[in-house]
């Protein structure tokens, strides 16, 4: 069977239904006596075989409840056959079949209990099941058990058996109701299992009814529910959804829904209805009604109390989830605000201090080792902070890698707490990586500290602490900074600049200026080889705003991509106009800075190619200046984009070379064509031998890698002469002029004789 194709295996459950249905019809019609006699063994045998083989067929796990059902089916089938064979035998031989049937009930109950245990017993479902069970038990005892045991002239064994079957059915009712109340999923296999249980119960109920009069056999058609039960039961383990019986989906809320009340309601009403309807004044009947009714009332009270307790517990869980971080269990931003407001309202020694820290290096850990390692790091940092600080201190997680500590103390204690916070974050942590690897990682933190004014709000306090934290990052990270009012003014000014910059970018109020790049091998700068396009902004109120200010704002405000696209488009078009009117020769090139964010756009190369084609500018006449961080921190997308740009013919130069992660490996691995020596090394030429040696090394390395070299920030003839002597072929700086508008660039270029056009005065 296991070798059958899956579609065939999934359809096997139809077989028992078809065979069992046809055989049941023939049995009911009693057309052929031989077939009628063989119907029960046939259907029962198929069901028992299905319970034994079906779980293997569909790889059901665990198989224990199915084995118990197989044993139950075997005993039931044996009991039916033995009862039929010994029907005319005298007492007690005629009751031998009942021994097998009772064993079958035992295995059947054990199987259902195993399912229930596997799914998990829900207290509310158990209480509801007990209510139904007691109601059914009262009805069974008064309607069937007491009348059956009171029949005169009946042997003790027969009376015990007559009363035992209804009680066993009550247990089945209890388990069946609990199963139905436990799972939220109603797969076909579950529905067929329920139908089989109901048919067994219906068959026993029929025999219990006739047992009131002393009849133990009844008409032949009373066996029909058992035949149908075997028929449907044989299809259960063969259905593909039989696997779901081992992993039921729990009901999240055990509510008294209309469907559930339709089952529970009659059970609750049983004691009252039977008190009115039955004319039975016997002591056992009164005891059954009294004890059963009291038990139902007690269960109802317990159910109501449990529902209230569950609601309260759920409300507490919801409130905790809404106010605490799920990863660390620390208060979240919302809860922190409430706690800080309470601290600000309190009076006591010292001041309220807030420490706002952001982990430096967390992104690298997350990207290198995965989110699980990042979660472990966050959890460990939270635990360290909690243990390193006094119990009165509040520790909260307010962002991905951001924590806040609030403590009431004096200034010396606050500074000591700041040192403890930094020390506990910096301690090495062993993290598990992929494929069983592990590594010791060290992260640091940038922290802002603010002392609360008695009249400040929690939001204002957190805002100022956040501002101080970012100031610490700007100063080099892995440090802490205490907030002062000037930081707030700087933030306000930055926000105002961002608002104005958005309008300037949208309305194209920015201007481009061009600074010449000269050839030192041809008359020490007499020939202009290229130009760098630099963006300039004249604010209508503030006047000229330096690029060091607004470029950083553009980066933070996510405006740099739009600004960079405009700069590229305008500079390429300007180069096209100069080429067209003969202002520059065919070898003249334009240098433009691009940000890492632009290089994270997969469509950047295609848009640039379209811009060059539209302007009619060869790709080789465009140089894109990138930062060293692009090579170090760039993604696979960035690397593919750089290769695509080189395929187009665009040249790529590393700006501010020497100030960051200058390494030969990065230059060899990425498709760069040149480097630009940073002005900080050029400034010392003629007076610093160290700067001269650095420039000499860059020239030698670039020559070995066939990279073009440009020196920026040249301001004096002495610097120019040293660069020329060291073999630097290209340079730019105020020695040959400031960055100027396009018209002025043309005029100064024609007048340039290799001597200073402007000398920096600041």
Automatic annotation (TrEMBL):
Keywords: Membrane, Transmembrane, Transmembrane helix
One Pfam family per UniProt: EAL
Bilayer-crossing regions: 12-29, 35-54, 66-86, 98-117, 129-150, 156-177, 189-210, 222-238, 259-278, 284-302
Domain EAL: 494-753
Domain GGDEF positions: 350-485
Protein name per UniProt: Diguanylate cyclase/phosphodiesterase
Organism: Dactylosporangium salmoneum
């Amino acid at each position: 069977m296991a070798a059958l194709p899956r579609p065939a295996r999934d359809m096997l459950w139809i077989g028992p239904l078809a065979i069992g249905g046809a055989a049941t019809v023939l049995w009911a019609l009693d057309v052929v006596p031989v077939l009628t006699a063989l119907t029960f063994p046939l259907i029962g045998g198929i069901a028992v075989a299905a319970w034994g083989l079906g779980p293997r067929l569909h790889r059901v796990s665990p198989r224990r409840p199915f084995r118990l059902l197989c044993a139950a089916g075997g005993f039931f089938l044996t009991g039916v056959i033995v009862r039929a064979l010994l029907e005319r035998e005298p007492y007690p031989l005629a009751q031998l079949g009942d021994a097998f049937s009772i064993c079958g009930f035992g295995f059947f109950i054990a199987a259902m209990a195993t399912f229930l245990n596997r799914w998990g017993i829900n207290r509310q479902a158990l209480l509801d099941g007990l209510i139904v069970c007691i109601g059914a038990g009262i009805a069974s005892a008064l309607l069937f058990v007491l009348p059956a045991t009171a029949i005169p002239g009946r042997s003790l064994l027969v009376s015990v058996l007559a009363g035992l079957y209804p009680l066993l059915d009550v247990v089945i009712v209890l388990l069946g109701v609990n199963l139905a109340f436990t799972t939220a999923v109603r797969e076909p296999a579950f529905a067929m299992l329920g139908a089989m249980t109901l048919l067994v119960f219906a068959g026993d109920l029929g025999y219990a009814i006739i047992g009131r009069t002393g009849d133990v056999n009844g008409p032949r058609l009373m066996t029909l529910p058992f035949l149908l039960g075997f028929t449907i039961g044989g299809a259960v383990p063969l259905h593909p959804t039989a696997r779901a019986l081992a992993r039921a989906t729990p009901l999240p809320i055990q509510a008294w829904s209309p469907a559930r009340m339709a089952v529970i309601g009659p059970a609750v009403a049983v004691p009252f209805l039977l008190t009115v309807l039955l004319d039975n004044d016997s002591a056992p009947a009164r005891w059954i009604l009294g004890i059963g009714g009291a038990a139902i009332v007690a269960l109802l009270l317990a159910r109501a109390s449990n529902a209230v307790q569950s609601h309260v517990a759920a409300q507490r869980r919801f409130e905790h989830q809404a106010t605490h971080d799920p990863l660390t269990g620390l208060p979240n931003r919302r809860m922190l605000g409430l706690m800080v407001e309470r601290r600000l309202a309190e009076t006591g020694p010292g001041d309220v201090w807030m420490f706002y820290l952001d982990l430096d290096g967390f992104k690298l850990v997350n990207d290198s080792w995965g989110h699980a390692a990042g979660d472990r790091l966050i959890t460990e940092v939270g635990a360290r902070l909690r243990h390193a600080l006094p119990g009165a201190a509040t520790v909260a997680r307010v962002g991905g890698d951001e924590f806040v500590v609030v403590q009431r103390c004096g200034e010396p204690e606050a500074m000591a707490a700041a040192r403890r916070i930094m020390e506990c974050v910096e301690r090495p942590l062993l993290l598990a990586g992929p494929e069983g690897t592990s590594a010791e990682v060290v992260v640091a933190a940038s922290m802002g500290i603010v002392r609360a004014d008695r009249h400040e709000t929690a939001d204002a306090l957190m805002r100022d602490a956040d501002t101080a934290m970012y100031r610490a990052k700007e100063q080099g990270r892995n440090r802490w900074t205490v907030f002062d009012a000037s930081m707030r003014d700087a933030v306000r000014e930055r926000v105002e600049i961002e608002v104005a910059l958005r309008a300037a970018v949208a309305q194209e109020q920015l201007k481009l200026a061009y600074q010449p790049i000269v050839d030192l091998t041809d008359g020490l700068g007499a020939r202009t080889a290229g130009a760098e396009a630099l963006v300039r902004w004249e604010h209508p109120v503030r006047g000229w705003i330096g690029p060091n200010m607004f470029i950083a704002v553009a980066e933070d405000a996510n405006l740099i991509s739009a600004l960079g696209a405009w700069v590229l488009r305008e500079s390429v078009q300007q180069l096209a106009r100069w080429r067209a009117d003969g202002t520059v020769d065919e070898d003249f090139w334009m240098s433009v800075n691009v940000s890492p964010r632009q290089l994270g756009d997969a469509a950047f190369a295609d848009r640039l190619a379209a811009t060059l084609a539209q302007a009619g500018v060869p790709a080789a006449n465009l140089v894109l200046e990138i930062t060293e961080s692009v090579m170090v921190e760039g993604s696979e997308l960035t690397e593919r984009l750089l290769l695509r740009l080189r395929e187009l013919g665009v040249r790529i130069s590393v700006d501010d070379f020497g100030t960051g992660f200058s390494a030969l490996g990065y230059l060899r691995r990425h498709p760069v064509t040149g480097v630009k020596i940073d002005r900080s090394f050029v400034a010392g030429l003629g007076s610093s031998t160290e700067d001269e040696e650095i420039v000499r090394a860059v020239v030698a390395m670039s020559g070995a890698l066939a990279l073009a070299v440009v020196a920026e920030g040249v301001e004096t003839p002495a610097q120019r002469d040293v660069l020329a002597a060291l073999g630097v072929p290209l340079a730019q700086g105020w020695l040959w002029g400031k960055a100027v508008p396009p018209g002025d660039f043309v005029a100064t270029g024609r007048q340039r004789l290799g001597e200073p056009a402007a000398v920096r005065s600041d």
